[in-house]
Amino acid sequence: MGQDNFTAQKRSSGGLPTSTTGTSNGRAAAGRGYAALPRGRQIQKTFNNIKITILCGFVTILVLRGTIGVGNLGSSDADAVNQNLIEETNRILAEIRSDSDPNDPDEFINGTQINPNVTYTLGPKIANWDAERRAWLQSNPEFPSLVRGKPRVLLVTGSPPKPCDNPIGDHYLLKAIKNKIDYCRLHGIEIVYNLAHLDMELAGYWAKLPLIRKLMLSHPEVEWIWWMDSDAMFTDMVFEIPLAKYDKHNLVIHGYPDLLFDQKSWIALNTGSFLFRNCQWSLDLLDVWAPMGPKGPIREEAGKILTANLKGRPAFEADDQSALIYLLLSQKDQWMEKVFVENSYYLHGYWAGLVDRYEEMIEKYHPGLGDERWPFVTHFVGCKPCGSYGDYPVERCLSSMERAFNFADNQVLKLYGFRHRGLLSPKIKRIRNETATPLESVDQFDIRRHPMQGSS
Amino acid sequence: MGQDNFTAQKRSSGGLPTSTTGTSNGRAAAGRGYAALPRGRQIQKTFNNIKITILCGFVTILVLRGTIGVGNLGSSDADAVNQNLIEETNRILAEIRSDSDPNDPDEFINGTQINPNVTYTLGPKIANWDAERRAWLQSNPEFPSLVRGKPRVLLVTGSPPKPCDNPIGDHYLLKAIKNKIDYCRLHGIEIVYNLAHLDMELAGYWAKLPLIRKLMLSHPEVEWIWWMDSDAMFTDMVFEIPLAKYDKHNLVIHGYPDLLFDQKSWIALNTGSFLFRNCQWSLDLLDVWAPMGPKGPIREEAGKILTANLKGRPAFEADDQSALIYLLLSQKDQWMEKVFVENSYYLHGYWAGLVDRYEEMIEKYHPGLGDERWPFVTHFVGCKPCGSYGDYPVERCLSSMERAFNFADNQVLKLYGFRHRGLLSPKIKRIRNETATPLESVDQFDIRRHPMQGSS
Which residues lie in Polar residues bias regions (chains A, B) (predicted)? Predict the structure, then answer.
């Protein structure tokens, strides 16, 4: 889900130096394997052929050996077991991955077919949510929307229901959710991790819309729904969102007003990490936001409108981010009063400009700042670790994600007296000796006693 | 971490019919690839040889094609990109996996070398924890050990710092933590997910000991530390542990007193899911439990003692479960008064006997029972999804874990009006139409309003 956001994202960043490099590297690297065959020296070719032919002969001999029944190599047993494991795993993988299910009657009601003449809706119109929610809260005092004076926040993230095309992707999804579990435990935030497609029409980066609506309606006690892409990590474990600052607003999103209104740039805002207040206004915004999303002709056509109206947007199907920007531009008077475009800290931080500066940050600053000195969130736009085709070299993405995770994890491990050996190392080392008076460390290092809020 | 527990576990279950089948299947399956060659019909063989030879010829032709430079297939470009991605990924994987770091001075202080003459300790002796903790709680009223009348519980789980040997393993680690996130959100339990080796000496299934101790000392506000293996899933999302029942106890673990004291069986208790009260008694138990754990000669020697004294235990290095059983048997008077051996519900439930009965349970019973009618926890003992060698066929393990996850997920999705198409399907379908009055569903289906506790 988060990953799907990338394709859109990266194209945008094509303008930035870092990503241009990244992209060109990507192409170059991608090109190499293929370019080798036509060009390259003839001798090389001949050699390869000989090699292959010999290999073939060898294989045949091996098989014959088996038939004639010459004694087996000691290793062949283990090899066979291994082989067998691999085959079984692949079989399961295929089974779990296989998506289309033509005989399934639900395929249709889940709406893979859609009628372009009917405007798509997220569900029956809900008109009186604020009053209904207020009444519910009054009659359910055991589920208050304020906990110890703080509005209740639900962090929502998710990833595709099936294993990643690129297996290492699942490992980084695991690290990314571990990172979110840590931040949310430290700051009293609940988590919903979605692994399902609630709505087949709004697949990919649009899937967050029906999900957010569903969660608002199913968790009336929650004041703010905070969407975060699966490829975004908390890199400042101390920083806290200054919610009081947004008392008069219903949508908080990272971006730049000048890029939005002066340049109409399609990267003026980023939908990788944003907060929605649980209220009628948000439901209304989702209702007008969603109709560009249904996959197929509608999303294709909408894409053309967005590309025609947003600066720097390449031609491709409508994405949720462009659609929101277009909506806020075209219906500015109706919505902007309640939208807070935040850039005083990194509610979303573009990774390419940050991951190489962690050492510098550690040297000069400290957690709790949340801005370019110590980014609150590092978002791996364009990396697609779970998909097969990102916009940056896989190598750069993976090592950068590893660095971001360990940079954040060091802040968590400090309470326990450990840190990673290096920002690229999964291994940890002690930074304090065990003591007989552990509570001193708790009073000193427990992040929960020293939360730092952004300037209100 | 959780996975490492398996090898020990499964051997035990060798006696149970299910696992015997499982194991024999495993062997059979493993054998097949290798056994096929010598036996099998000769014609079959000849056919294979011909096939292989043809294949070889084909490959050679393909390569020649490339050399002669006949136009490239359209796919070759994508293939090259794919190839390149795979290579880069593997390089990173190797980098991240590479463990030994001889030049690292920390290698030593982290204690990979150990002195068998010095008894291993988890850290400086802590003698007065109960009083210190009480004092801390009094001076930190903002971190109460009771929240809304319930003792504060911290669920602890974890997995190895590095990607799984078997890539699909990471996907199931992700599903297993999503499952725990759901249960813990519904029942107000905090989660710590450990991805680090705190102590190189206590690697593998022993790693939970230093981790639990560290967490007790770093989270004085937590009353119960609940360890759960990464391969255990909540399959009853409604059931709640009857903590009041354990007011007089400090360790709650699933098991059978007769197996423990009459038979001295090494599977009398299961350390895949148990609760420790945060108190001096627990620290003391950890101190006497740990010395059998240091890897190398100590663990090897201890293993012999355990095998000699515990019924059914095969000969292998000391594991944490056998060590605990041995300890409670040999020092019964000192410890058992505070140990609650629970089997009125499945604090740990052995998967092989449960996963095939889910349909029957759905038909006859309902969540909230927690026992054989609707198991609270389903634990995939012996599956080792993250390692390469489990004790059951990978296929059986993966599909069983998929079934357990979806069985549990259906209970979570009910609030949102969905369920999985089948217990093996990651895809979901609606079970209710969207309504304009969503709060009715909340009042009806929110698990938090209807928690069911085990009989106190």
Answer: 1-11
| Interatomic CA distance for residues A284 and A226, integer angstroms | 17
Helices (H), B240-387: 257, 280-289, 297-309, 320-330, 332-335, 358-364
Question: Residue B257 pLDDT more than 50?
Answer: yes
B163 lies within 8 A of chain A by CB: yes
Report pLDDT for B48. Answer: 53
Q: How far is CA A66 from CA A73, A78, A159, B30, B45, in A?
A: 11, 16, 46, 18, 9
Cα A157 to chain center, whole Å?
Answer: 8
Please name the member of A88, A89, A181 whose beta carbon is closest to the beta carbon of B193: A181
Q: What is the DSSP string of B118-185?
A: SPP-SSS----HHHHHHHHHHH-TTS-SEETTEE-EEEEEE--SS--SSTHHHHHHHHHHHHHHHHHH
Point out the residue among B92, B95, B426 whose CB comes nearest to the CB of A394. Answer: B92
* DSSP for B283-323, written as a single string: HHHHHHHGGG-STTHHHHHHHHHHHHHSBT--S-S--HHHH
> The tokens 């045949």 sit on which residue?
A60
> Å from B314 to nearest chain A CA?
22
Strand partners, B68: none
pLDDT at position A302 over 90: yes
What is the residue type of A37?
L
Instruction: Supply the angle between the helices B280-289 and B208-218 in degrees, to the nearest 10.
Output: 160
* pLDDT band, residue A384 (cuts 50/70/90): confident
Cβ separation B402–A426 shorter than 8 A: no
| Tally of CB atoms within 10 A around A113 | 10
**Structure-token match 């309606």, residue found:** A217
Q: Give the tens place of pLDDT for each residue, B362-394.
A: 999 999 999 999 999 999 999 988 887 778 888
**B91 or A286: which carries more pLDDT confidence?**
A286
A42/A19 Cα distance (integer angstroms): 36
Predicted confidence at residue B46, as pLDDT, reads 52
Closest-approach residue (CA) in chain A for B193: A178
pTM of the full structure: 0.79
Tell me phi and psi for residue A189, to 5 degrees: -115, 135
Indicate if the pLDDT at residue B27 is higher than 70. no
Question: Which one of A71-80, A134-143, B13-22 scores highest in mean pLDDT?
Answer: A134-143
Residue B395 has pLDDT above 60, yes or no: yes
Predicted confidence band of residue B200 (pLDDT cuts 50, 70, 90): confident
| B82 Cβ contact list (under 8 Å, min separation 6) | A388
DSSP type of residue B43: H
> pLDDT digits over A424-444, tens only?
999 999 999 989 999 999 999
Which residue is it, tokens 């993966």? B398
Q: Is A37 a residue whose pLDDT tops 90? A: no
